[in-house]
């Protein structure tokens, strides 16, 4: 075996090992969607997809995590609307899982999330770099085990 062949074989083995050892694969991510001109991901059902979404969050200026009850049980089917500070709605979508990653331009926004007719609202400042994490939670229904 020549030194060049050995180096290529070693490099291929190392890269393959790293890929197989990684818990997050692009295949675990849901498809990128669009609301107007804004790209977003929504999902996080199941541990593989949830881990993939958490890892991908660093590439999105805004990461929203949604849960219900004291224990923070993840929820889906949440209507999310984002407006700028002047009140103009710039984004609207329904979450198919507990995570929503949104590629918003830098600025100040108001995020409204509605689950079962109950709307929660939070202000958020999205910077030019990094990712802002926003947690939104709803109380468990009365008499619920959540």
A few lines on this structure:
This protein is of the alpha+beta class and 146 residues long. It has helices at 3-21, 47-56, and strands spanning 33-35, 38-43, 62-68, 73-74, 78-84, 89-95, 99-102, 107-115, 118-126, 132-138.
Provide an overview of this structure.
- InterPro entries: CarboxyPept-like_regulatory, Secre_tail.
- It is a single chain.
- The chain has 146 residues and is α+β, with helices and mostly antiparallel strands.
- Helix content is 20%, strand content 42%.
- The protein is built from two helices and ten strands, in the order αββαββββββββ.
- It has helices spanning 3-21, 47-56, and strands at residues 33-35, 38-43, 62-68, 73-74, 78-84, 89-95, 99-102, 107-115, 118-126, 132-138.
- Strands 1, 2, 3, 4, 7 and 10 form a six-stranded mixed beta sheet that branches. A four-stranded antiparallel beta sheet has the order 6-5-8-9, with no helix packed on it.
- A hairpin with a 2-residue loop joins β8 and β9.
- It is globular.
């Amino acid at each position: 075996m020549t030194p060049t062949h050995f180096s290529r074989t070693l490099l291929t083995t190392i890269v393959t090992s790293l890929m197989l050892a990684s818990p997050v694969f692009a295949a675990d991510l849901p498809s990128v969607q669009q609301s107007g001109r804004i790209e977003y991901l929504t999902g996080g059902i199941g541990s593989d997809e949830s881990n993939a979404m958490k890892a991908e969050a660093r590439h999105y200026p805004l990461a929203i995590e949604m849960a219900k009850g004291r224990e923070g049980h993840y929820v889906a089917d949440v209507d999310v609307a984002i407006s700028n500070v002047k009140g103009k709605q710039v984004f609207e979508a329904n979450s198919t899982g507990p995570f929503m990653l949104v590629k918003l331009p830098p600025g100040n926004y108001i995020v409204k999330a509605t689950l079962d007719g109950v709307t929660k609202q939070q202000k958020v400042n999205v910077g030019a770099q990094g990712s802002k994490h926003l947690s939104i939670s709803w109380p468990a229904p009365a008499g619920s085990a959540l």
